[in-house]
C-alpha cells in the first residue's frame, strides 16, 4: 500500500503545543534485550502452560500516551488536570484525557484488577502497587515529541526496568509476576503530530511511518525480553475522524486521505506483530484494533446493543470557543473559553482528540471478546 503523494497530515497532535525540536534516535536498549531473550525462552514452555490453566493475569502494566494515561503528565503540562476533565469519573480533574475512564481502565476491568497506579504517584502506592503500574504519558510517542519533556516509550520502559532492578530484593514485581501480567502498549499518533509540526514532508511520510512502527516493534520486543508474556498493542485509530480534523467539514465526514496513511501504519504493525509472534512461537503479542472499533462505533452511532447512542458522532462534547482555544482553556480572568455539551454520555468524542468515557465503553464492547479470548480470562 502506498501513501498518497498529496498527503499532508494536518495537526492531530494530542495534547500539547510544541516547545522544542524533535530528535529521532533509534534503538536504545535493543542489545541488552537480545541477551536476555535466550535466557527467557528456556523457561517459557513450562511456565506458559501453568499460566493458561491456573493463573488469571493479576497485574497490568501500561506504556504509551494520552489514550492510556491515568495521571502521569504533570499538572502544569496538560489540560487533563483542568476542568472539565474528569467530571464523569472520578468527579474532578485527575489526569485522564477524558470526562471519565479511558482505555486502561477498561482493560483493567476485563482482567478484574483495579486500574493500575500512575507511575508519578508511586509514592502513594501501598497496596495499589499490586495491580501493576501505568507508565503512559499523554503527548508522548515512540520518539521524542515535546523535546525531552515527556518520556518516550523507550524511557517509559527504562523506568519500568529500573523499578524491577531497584526493587529486586523487596520483590515489588517478580519475574513470575511479569509472566502472569498483561502489558498494554498504546500509541495513538503523537509521533506523526510531531513529525508534521517540525516540518516533516509528505514524501517523507512514506519512510517515517515504517520508522515509527519499527521503533514500536523494538519496544514490544524489549517488553517481552523483560519477562512479559501477554502484550497487547493498539492499532492506530482513524486519525482522519478526530474532531480536530473533521471540524473542517463541520464534523460531517472523516478525512479518508489521512485514514489511508493510518491503514499503512496498521498494515506494517500487523506484519511486525506476526513476525514477533512467529518468533516467540506462543501467541504473545495481540493487536487491539482501535481502527475497526472506532470506525464501527462511529458508523453505527453507538454501541452494538443500542444502549449508548451518539447522534452526531464526530462532534466533540467539549470545544474551545474559537480555534485558538481548547477544551479546558481559561482566559486571564479565569473565564471559560470553551463549551461543554449537556450530556457527555451522548458524545463519542470528548475533546478534539479523545473519546468520552461512553466512547471508550462502546469501543471496548467491540473489542472485549477477542481480547478476552487472547488473554484467556
Ligand atoms: C484531508 O486532509 C488532507 C491533509 O490535511 C487535506 O489536504 C485534505 O484537503 C483533506 N481532505 C478533505 C476532504 O478535507
Ligand atoms: C527517548 O528519549 C531519550 C531521552 O530524551 C532519548 O535519549 C532517546 O533517544 C529517545 N528514544 C528514541 C527512540 O527516540
Ligand atoms: C515464521 O518462522 C519460520 C521459521 O521459524 C519461517 O520459515 C517463516 O517464514 C516465518 N513466517 C513469518 C511470517 O515470519
Ligand atoms: C465481554 O463480553 C462478553 C461476551 O462476549 C460478555 O458476556 C461480558 O459481560 C463482557 N464483559 C464486559 C466487562 O463487558
TrEMBL record:
One of its GO terms (biological process) is lipid catabolic process. Keywords: Hydrolase, Lipid degradation, Lipid metabolism, Membrane, Transmembrane, Transmembrane helix. Gene3D superfamilies: SGNH hydrolase. It comes from the Eukaryota. Pfam families: Lipase_GDSL. The chain crosses the membrane at residues 6-25. GO terms for molecular function: hydrolase activity, acting on ester bonds. Residues 29-48 are annotated as: Disordered. InterPro entries: GDSL (IPR001087), SGNH_hydro_sf (IPR036514), SGNH_plant_lipase-like (IPR035669). Residues 30-43 have a biased composition (Basic residues). Coiled coil: none annotated. Belongs to the 'GDSL' lipolytic enzyme family. This is GDSL esterase/lipase At5g03610-like.
